[in-house]
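Sequence of PorT family protein (Hymenobacter algoricola).
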Amino acid sequence: MLAASTTSAQQLEAVGVGASANISQTWVRQRLIQVEQYTIRTDDDGSRLDDTGNRFSAYARIGLGAGKAFVQPELAYTSVLGNQSSITYFSRPDVNLVYPDVSYLYPRLRRAEVALLAGLHLSRRFYVLAGPLLAVNQREKDTHGATSPLQELYGSFNRSVVRVQALAQLGVGLQLGRFDLTARYEHSLTPYTQELRYGGQTYAYRQRTGQALLGLGFLVYDRHRPWRK
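Predicted 3D structure, token representation.
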């Protein structure tokens, strides 16, 4: 009887796939980092929420009892641009004391995600949802040759990325037929990077992430609207 009651209390409402256009931003607490002869400026572009990317997901919507509440587990993959940073150094001190060398970092954040969102139907079509995400971050590969003077420093930036990160999302959705239109905001609960290690030294490098997501989902299955009878 208990098993039957639990089954009737939870019903699969919908299954869908989705994609979103993201406007992202990373924030580094340390704006200026001096690593030996290298001066790193982490706010070089001076702008906010100007980096772009995409998120692709598959999700299920499970109703809780006879009320309006539901849970929405998701599997997703996100790829967005990171914040631009610059590295200033003097490769030839006897020549360019006035005009130093400047190199720019244009990182890309890539991660696989598992989310467990909770939602509430406010009307037949309109709903709100929020919840945590667990992300597995992918570190960038070293694309600089062995002869590059910055090879070791670039490698330090790549290795600074935390493998597992916790985030949270809050958003609204509108269902139109088979389509889900969503608008969400996401912010990190744990840092994307914490420290930078170079030449046997450790430097503070605490970085958080946030992004706005405008999404479009397609319902492969919808219990409330059987497309084929």
